Amino acid sequence: ERSDGTDGQVSGATVVAQALKTQNVEYMFGIVGIPVTEIAVAAQQLGIRYVGMRNEQAACYAASAVGYLTGRPGVCLVVSGPGLVHALGGMANANMNCWPLIVIGGSSERSQETMGAFQEFPQAVRSSIYGRPGACYVDIPADFVNLQVNVNSVKYTECCMPPPVSMAETSAVYKAASVLRNAKQPLLIIGKGAAYAHAEEGIRKLVERCQLPFLPTPMGKGVIPDNHPNCVAAARSRALQFADVIVLFGARLNWILHFGLPPRYQPDVKFIQVDICAEELGNNVRPAVTLLGDINAVTKQELASQKSLPMNYYTVFYHVQEQLPKDCIVVSEGANTMDIGRTVLQNYLPRHRLDAGTFGTMGVGLGFAIAAALVAKDRNPGQRVICVEGDSAFGFSGMEVETICRYNLPIVLLVVNNNGIYQGFDTATWKDILKFGDATAVAPPMCLLPNSHYEQVITAFGGKGYFVQTPKELQESLRQSLADTTKPSLINIMIEPQAMRKAQDFHWLTRSNM
Ligand code: ADP
Ligand code: MG
């Protein structure tokens, strides 16, 4: 007798196997015996890879790991009684790990009225991968396995779709951005939920754009490479202990993370929790912000929300670094502009960076840039010179822009403008201050005129000027400036007037406001 359907008859085992195949199940681990042997044989015939193991526990561990690695549940096939009991360890482990898994157990014969149980398959797949992933158990009565039914009477449910992607509430996204922005010592904790969610690209962007230190949990390792400069794994205890804001990306505050409690953490540390499981939010601690949703989607929401905030030094340099040619000469001066720029803008070659130097002189930048552009023109045609100036530093020799234009040197000047020396004020605050008296009496000495259009200095001489306030405008104007090798340009980049680097006691947690 054949059970492959060629004679119109199909066995229960084949129906089970075909149902799994229809659900894109690729791997089955197990130990065969009565009544499940036929299921393994049928699965193999249909192209599902079957791995016979020596104990159901290991089989179940293997099947759950397949679920974690592929996002579709692996199947663990066991016999009833002891087989299932042995598999329980693996099921519990999968559940605790939030990994999708389907365990199929053969049980003793039952009457045919319960044939509806076949319909459990799609539901099993769905509940293993939707919401918080986990283990599912499907019980197959022995008489189903060998029962012959007409092939046309079997209807397979369509392959279960990947889980719908849920996003966090918009107000929570903004609140999280604000809490993170005001952090002095923020920390991202990257868990295996982030790995499972394939959130690596977004999280890396967030880390680099905001220069956030991060700590992977044991299985969160590799979401961003361990050798990334912002990885603080080597100082794990310190990082946990001194952080004032912690973002949890798919990591639970369980024993692995010391429950999120003192003395391993600051008593007033603010947690921002990102998880797909609502029940997890607020577990052990009272989070400052909860973001219920898929980590990958929520990360993208966070990145998008930042675009509507004023830029700070890190955002600016992140976007500049992305476009700079590796062999360009970087000239830089300013206080924060030069300091923070040095940490983010990379140099790959010797003698390709000129800055305020030993004497800490402001006003050297444009002269240096003119020299570099001349030497580049003679010795290295096509090489670009980028001059990164603070707004105050630019003021010391800004009129050399006329010189640059007179000799038509295609220097790209960036003025990182925070309306002041070290920091300044926005236009509204500046006006408020002036209400109290004459500017010489009341204006903080650090302030420069807010909203100054330094780009107009270059347009006065025929160069190209850009006034930019958003990352997008910055990207676009820099792209155009670098593409144009015939003309100098000046990009006046408005940043948050109070954006500053904050004093930190150990360097790998150092960063400014985002
Ligand atoms: P670790 O051991 O790395 O700290 P945990 O297992 O404690 O990680 O936490 C993983 C968390 O990730 C779980 O709370 C789980 O609900 C969550 N999770 C799993 N998949 C996603 C997803 N796609 N989006 C958001 N959270 C997820
Ligand atoms: Mg300034």
Automatic annotation (TrEMBL):
Annotated protein name in UniProt: 2-hydroxyacyl-CoA lyase
InterPro entries: DHS-like_NAD/FAD-binding_dom, HACL1-like, THDP-binding, Thiamin_PyroP_enz_cen_dom, Thiamin_PyroP_enz_TPP-bd_dom, TPP_enzyme_TPP-bd
Upper lineage: Eukaryota, Metazoa, Chordata, Craniata, Vertebrata
Domain Thiamine pyrophosphate enzyme N-terminal TPP-binding: 11-121
Family as reported in the entry's similarity comment: Belongs to the TPP enzyme family.
SUPFAM superfamilies registered for this protein in UniProt: DHS-like NAD/FAD-binding domain, Thiamin diphosphate-binding fold (THDP-binding)
Annotated PANTHER family: 2-HYDROXYACYL-COA LYASE, 2-HYDROXYACYL-COA LYASE 1
Protein encoded by which gene: HACL1
Segments forming domain Thiamine pyrophosphate enzyme central: 175-300
GO process annotations (BP): fatty acid alpha-oxidation
Catalytic reactions of this protein: an (R)-2-hydroxy-long-chain-fatty acyl-CoA = a long-chain fatty aldehyde + formyl-CoA; a 2-hydroxy-3-methyl fatty acyl-CoA = a 2-methyl-branched fatty aldehyde + formyl-CoA; 2-hydroxyoctadecanoyl-CoA = heptadecanal + formyl-CoA
EC number per UniProt: 4.1.2.63
